[in-house]
Each structure stands twice: as structure tokens, then as C-alpha cells.
Amino acid sequence: MSETTKTKEQLKEEFIKNRGYWSKFWEDVLELDSNFFSTYSRFSSVPSKNNTLSPKIREFIYIAIDASTTHLYLPGLKLHMENALALGATRDEIMEVLELTSVLGIHTCTMGVPILMDELRKMGRGDEIDNIEYGGHEKSLKEKFIKNRGYWSPFWDDMLKLSPEFFECYLDFSSVPWKSGTLEPKVKEFIYIAIDTATTHLHEEGARIHIRNALNYGATKEEIMEVFQCVSVLGMHALTEGGPMLRELAEK
Q1: What is the dihedral of CA 65, 70, 75, 79, to 10 degrees?
Q2: What is the rounded CA–CA span in Å between residue 118 and residue 207?
Q3: What totals of helices (H) and strands (E) does the chain contain, helices first?
Q4: 152 in a domain, yes or no?
Q5: CA distances from 64 to 39, 76, 159, 191, 228 (A)
Q6: Contact 38, 12 (CB under 8 A)
Q7: Which of 74, 153, 161, 201 suits 25 as a labelling partner, its CA being 20 to 30 A distant?
Q8: What residues make up the domain containing 54?
Q9: In the listed set 118, 142, 174, which residue is the last one of a domain according to the structure?
């Protein structure tokens, strides 16, 4: 049977088989354009058919991109939390995903601090920053970061120089899931990869760092590619939000 001859009920059953759930907004999209729904269903089902990541981990990816401060898509967030719980995820695991996702705001500093440093140097004020040297406290903070987070990047040096107190607070904040969480390190890195590569953020430097970290923790290229595939469905929220609205207005 071709995709064009499948009934709407068959398309619905196929979606549930591949994706493991159904929602009212899919009903609206299916009703409005069954052909488009069918192509999306096949597109979004590739990860579940390949099954490189476990279904629960895939739901963690969806939770992260929906909860991300650059998206905050509450209908999807609730739905994927329900899915994760149904797949055996614990409250603490989902809380850990949210904690990992909550660090996204620090990209204000990882982007802004290097610009600040560069502009100071261009204005002839480079000595204000270039002459700052690490003391014992700063060195211990750097060592602690590497121990807790498993890596280091040059932009942390700049932030540590400009505001050791703020850096220390961020270190403690971002280290909580690494110290008390139960998700394995590569899965933590998958969450960072997801929120950095989401189309609402596209933070290339962070994505590169966390892809490298995940590979160092033993992740395969297939696993990371599946993270990308899961995140790539984000654009469909144009339909899950707009579809029901269009159907309601058109039927008035």
C-alpha cells in the first residue's frame, strides 16, 4: 500500500506504532493534510526505527528541547514527560534533564565575555584584563571545574578572570547534576548537544564542545546523529500550534 492510499486511521496507527503515543494536535494536522502528516510521520520515525538510543533517552531529548529557555513549548514538554514516565523514567531522572537544560543561560557570558575582552583590547585597554593573573583560588576553581564537568575551554579562562565569584557560583550550579545525578556522562552530553543544536539556539561553539565530550565518553557517531534527528523535528511545532488554530478558525 502506498503512502497516498493509506487511510487516516492507518496513518494514525502507523504513527502510534513508530512513535509510541498520540495527541489531539496530531489529529488536527492529520485532518488538515494527511499527505503532509504522512511525510512528517516517516521523517520523525527514523530514530525509533533505527533505535540507536533507547526510547527513554529519546524522550529526554524531546523534554530538553521543549523545556529549553529558547523554546519553552509547554504542550510538548508535558507530553514527553508523560511518555518518559510511561517508559520507566524516574522523577529524579527527568529533574536531572531539566537541571542540565537550565544552564543554557550561561551562553550570555560565553558569547559576551570574549566580545568584551576583544573590544577592550581594540580600545587600547587590554592591560585591564591581560595583566590579570590567576591566584591560588582561581587555580583551584579551574581544577574543580575540570574535575566536576570533565573538560575545560578557553572562554572559561576569560570569565574566571573577569569575575571569579560569578564563575564559582556557576560552577557549583552547573555541577549539581554531575555530582548527584544518575544519568551516564554521555547522556548528559546528549542533553547539552540537543539544546545547543536546536534551531531555536544553534550555538555552534557549545555544540562542538559537547559533541567532542560525548565522543570522549564513548558515544558513537550513530548515537549523536540520532540526537540530531530527534532535535530536527522542532520545526513541526509550527503545525502542532498552528494546525489546531487553523482548523478552529476555518470551521467557524
Answers
A1: 20
A2: 23
A3: 15, 0
A4: yes
A5: 24, 10, 26, 6, 13
A6: no
A7: 201
A8: 3-89+184-250
A9: 174
Do both 26 and 142 map to the same domain?
Answer: no
Both 84 and 125 in one domain: the answer is: no
Tally of domains within the chain: 2
Tell me, yes or no, whether 179 lies in a domain: no
> 118 and 64 share a domain?
no
| Same domain membership, residue 66 and residue 132 | no
Q: Is the pTM of this model over 0.70?
A: yes
C-alpha distances (whole Å) from 21 to each of 14, 78, 136, 146, 153 are 10, 13, 54, 40, 40
